[in-house]
Structures are given as structure tokens and as C-alpha cells.
């Protein structure tokens, strides 16, 4: 069994979808093809959801929804080379878009989160529908599966937890036909009562890992717009070098500290079963790729640089003038768990504790006010967390040139800095 996942970055234009079909011609079967939303569609849907929740005028939402529809119809037209109106996929898209418009017009009722997940799930429904109608011409035996009925989760909308036992049963049953090419959606899932959930932003990589792990795949391949995992994001560091093979642990560290190329949850299910994870460049010459497996720290000598933006440095001082005690930590971590704060770094001093967290957006100030009941709170928004694995002094000093260092931490293998950028890199 093979699992191929194609992300939004390679599926943003018809040319990427054509290349995907070429890759599928050569691929071994059985194969499960997992697709993400095209390009930045999920961002557009998030924006529509927040416009609707704020009671924005219907015309404005309609205009944006129509633009999103036109984007998908245009891709479909280019793929079919026809006017598009008679393509069977157009009917399916019409149907999905009218469902979306209804949800936006109604707005969230008492519970925002389930409604929000339904809205953002449309990205993968649109893309799967367009891709299916195109691939059906080339692979008439392709089988479409709605993953919302197969991956079962709890009701933590936005970042749902997988119910592994039930999911295992359903996945094995759904993808059992030998020699078949299956097509399904990444990122989205459903509860036992059939409410739509999502697995966390960028979660399609994780979908591929869930399926690979349960189906004991030979390997899981993530097709991306980069030639594999590099020593830094090639979009911000043109001198980044390609890493042909890295260990699961190295990949997990990179993903955890913000290397966007792999979703952090992807590694563990595959590591548990020793299934190789391959990151491969679609359309890159020489079929370059990175294999992530049980390697013995193959790439230790290559310095790796990871930049995580949109961070907040939050410093908290107990109001009772005491030292930071275990009870304060217990209290703070308890709160943060409830608020789903994503913590990347913690630093404790005698009278304060500082956290580097992902910016939770509009809810942040409300959270700060709650903390202020018991603590003095200071924070710095729009900071970055810079992580250097296998660092050298030279690699660090180059990257820190235009940065004001707010916090620094070092171990033998990893150096981390929370910084404020003072001039563009
Ligand atoms: P997908 O389309 O599968 O969702 P992503 O956009 O999430 O793909 O991930 C690919 C992007 O990750 C690349 O375009 C690149 O800019 C970024 N990236 C960040 N860190 C790295 C890294 N170390 N190696 C390769 N790409 C990286
Ligand atoms: N479409 C989803 C997102 O943009 C999931 C993914 O791309 O992996 O977050
Ligand atoms: Mg992604």
C-alpha cells in the first residue's frame, strides 16, 4: 500500500494537477491519494467565516465566495480544455458552493466551533471534487472516499483528536479493495455523530500519516513544491541545502519548532511503525526527495535553521511577591491547556516565568485579562522563535544580525532565540 499526499502548494494551478496525474501513471497500487485544498483556499474560508460571524453584509461575502468558486471552475476548465459548463464536476461544485453560501448566510448559531469547522472543510471538498472529475477520465476505476465518515475524532473542533480504534476499523474496511486507486481528502474528519471536524491547520500531512500507519503502508509520500526537506526554508534562505535523509527525531524537532514543510503530528504514527516518510518535489528535476526514517542521525553535521513567526513572548510574575513555585506552574500550564496555547519555549527565573507561544489571535487580550487576576503580565507580540540545530557560531551570528534578542537558550545540539526583528532580513 502506498499513500500519496498532494498539498495546496502543488495543487494551486491546473499544471500541478496534470503533473500529479503523470505521477499516478507510474505509481504502484493499491494507492490512497490524499488531497488538500487548492492554494490558499482554507485561508479564504477562514476569512469568510469570520466575516459572517461579524455580521458582514451578505453582498460582500457573496462576492468573495463567487471569486473562490471562479478560481475552482477556472482550474476545472483549464484541465478539461472545455467551457466547463457540462463537466459533471461543475454540478458537484455548484452543489457544494450553494451549501457553503447557506451556511455563511445563516451564520453560527449557539456554537461557533462546529459551524467554523464545517465552513473550512469545504476547501478539501472542492479540491477532491475537481481532482476526482479530472482523474476519472484518466483512471476510470478510481474510487472516491469521503474521509469524514472514515477518520473519527472527538469534538475538539479545529484541532480534533483521532479516535484510533474506531478509525482503524473504518480505514481498514474503506481501503481494502486490492489494486485500487482511492482518492480522499486531507485535514477533515468527523465525529461519531457525523459532525465535521478538522485536524488542525496544515493537517493534511497528518491525514496521510494516519492512513499510512493504519494500513501498514510501505511508505507515505508528501508531494510538495520544494525538492524535499532542506536545511532551512528555501523561500527565506536561498543557500539552504537539501537533506537526503534524516531521522524521525530530527524531523520531529524541525516540525515542532516550526519548519512548515511537515506538520508536527505526522511523524509519530509513522515512527511507531517504522514506515518511511518521503518528502518529494513535484516537478523538481532528478526526482529529489528526503526520506525520514530510523536513520542513525545521518545529517548531524548539517546546521539547520528554523524560523517561526507570529510568536508572543509572554512573561508572568506572581502577584504575591513569592518566587515562582510549582503551584504557579501547575496553574499556568492548566490554563494554557484549556486555552490550547501552543508553547515552544519556557524560561523560568526566580520571580517570573516566560513562555514563547503561537499567537492565538483575537482571543489573546481576553486571556491576558484573565491572567492579570493573579499575575503581573508583560508581553511582546510579533516576535520570532529562531532555532538552530547542530549550530555553529557562524550560522547563528549571521541570522541574528538584524535581531534584538529577548530570550536565549542553548543545549549541545540546539540553540534557540526569541527575537524582535529590528530590520528586514
Ligand atoms: P503543502 O502544500 O503540502 O501544505 P507546505 O506549504 O505546508 O506544503 O510546505 C511546503 C513549504 O514549506 C515550502 O514551500 C517551504 O517554503 C516551507 N519550508 C519551511 N521550512 C522548510 C524546510 N526546512 N525545507 C523545505 N521547505 C520548508
Ligand atoms: N487546507 C488545510 C490548511 O490549509 C490543510 C492543509 O493544507 O494541510 O490548513
Ligand atoms: Mg502544509
**What is the domain tally?**
2
Structural class: alpha/beta
- Total strand count, please? 16
CATH fold-level topology of the largest domain: Carbamate kinase
Distance linking N and C termini: 44 Å
Looking at the overall shape, the CATH architecture of the largest domain is 3-Layer(aba) Sandwich
- Cofactors and ligands: adenosine-5'-diphosphate, aspartic acid, magnesium ion
- Unreliable residue runs: none
Tell me the CATH superfamily of the largest domain: Acetylglutamate kinase-like
H/E series, N to C? EHEHHHHHEHEEEHEEHHEEEHEEHEHEE
Largest sheet: 8 strands, mixed
What is the residue-averaged pLDDT?
A: 94
CATH class value of the largest domain: Alpha Beta
Mind explaining what this structure looks like?
This protein is an alpha/beta fold. It has 2 domains: 2-225, 3-Layer(aba) Sandwich (Carbamate kinase), CATH 3.40.1160; 304-421, VC0802-like (2-Layer Sandwich). Helix content is 37%, strand content 24%. β15 (403-410) and β16 form a beta hairpin. The chain is globular. The mean pLDDT is 94. Adenosine-5'-diphosphate binds next to loops.
Name a few traits of the molecule:
2 domains; 425 residues; 6-stranded antiparallel β-sheet; single chain; globular; binds magnesium ion; binds adenosine-5'-diphosphate; 37% helix; VC0802-like; alpha/beta; 16 strands; binds aspartic acid
Amino acid at each position: 500500500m502506498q499513500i500519496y499526499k498532494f498539498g495546496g502548494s502543488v495543487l494551486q494551478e491546473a499544471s500541478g494537477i496534470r503533473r500529479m496525474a503523470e505521477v499516478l501513471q507510474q505509481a504502484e497500487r493499491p494507492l490512497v491519494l490524499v488531497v488538500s485544498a487548492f492554494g490558499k483556499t482554507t485561508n479564504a474560508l477562514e476569512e469568510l467565516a469570520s466575516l459572517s460571524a461579524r455580521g458582514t453584509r451578505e453582498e460582500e461575502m457573496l462576492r468573495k465566495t463567487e471569486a473562490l468558486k471562479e478560481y475552482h471552475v477556472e482550474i476545472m476548465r483549464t484541465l478539461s480544455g472545455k467551457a466547463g459548463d457540462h463537466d459533471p464536476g461543475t454540478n458537484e461544485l455548484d452543489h457544494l458552493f450553494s451549501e457553503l453560501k447557506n451556511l455563511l448566510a445563516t451564520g453560527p448559531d449557539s456554537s461557533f466551533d462546529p459551524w467554523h469547522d464545517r465552513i473550512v472543510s469545504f476547501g478539501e471538498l472542492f479540491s477532491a471534487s475537481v481532482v476526482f472529475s479530472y482523474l476519472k477520465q484518466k483512471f476510470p476505476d478510481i474510487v472516491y472516499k469521503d474521509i469524514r465518515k472514515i477518520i473519527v475524532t472527538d469534538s475538539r473542533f479545529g484541532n480534533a483528536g483521532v479516535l484510533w480504534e474506531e478509525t482503524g476499523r473504518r480505514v481498514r474496511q474503506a481501503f481494502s479493495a486490492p489494486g485500487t486507486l482511492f482518492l480522499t481528502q486531507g485535514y477533515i474528519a468527523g465525529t461519531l455523530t457525523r459532525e465535521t471536524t478538522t485536524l488542525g491547520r496544515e493537517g493534511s500531512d497528518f491525514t496521510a500519516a494516519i492512513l499510512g500507519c493504519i494500513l501498514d503502508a510501505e511508505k507515505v509520500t508528501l508531494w510538495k513544491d520544494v525538492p524535499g526537506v532542506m536545511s532551512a526554508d528555501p523561500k527565506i534562505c536561498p543557500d539552504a541545502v537539501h537533506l537526503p535523509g534524516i531521522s524521525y527525531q530530527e524531523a520531529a524537532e524541525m516540525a515542532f519548532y516550526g519548519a512548515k514543510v511537515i506538520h508536527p503530528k505526522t511523524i509519530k504514527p509513522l515512527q511507531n511503525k517504522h514506515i518511511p516518510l518521503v518528502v518529494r518535489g513535484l516537478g523538481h528535476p532528478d526526482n529529489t526527495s528526503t526520506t525520514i526514517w530510523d536513520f542513525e542521525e545521518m545529517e548531524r553535521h548539517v546546521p539547520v535553521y528554523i524560523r517561526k513567526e507570529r510568536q508572543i513572548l509572554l512573561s508572568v510574575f506572581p502577584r504575591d511577591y513569592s518566587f515562582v513555585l510549582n503551584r504557579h506552574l501547575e496553574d499556568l500550564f492548566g490554563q494554557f491547556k484549556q486555552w490550547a496555547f501552543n508553547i515552544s519555549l519556557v524560561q523560568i527565573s526566580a520571580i517570573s516565568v516566560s513562555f514563547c507561544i503561537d499567537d492565538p489571535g483575537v482571543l489573546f487580550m481576553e486571556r491576558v485579562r484573565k491572567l492579570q487576576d493573579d499575575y503581573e503580565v508583560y508581553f511582546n507580540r510579533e516576535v520570532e522563535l529562531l532555532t538552530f540545530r547542530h549550530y555553529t557560531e557562524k550560522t547563528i551570528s549571521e541570522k541574528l544580525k538584524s535581531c534584538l534578542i529577548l530570550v536565549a537558550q542553548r543545549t549541545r545540539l540546539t540553540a534557540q532565540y526569541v527575537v524582535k526583528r529590528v530590520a528586514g532580513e
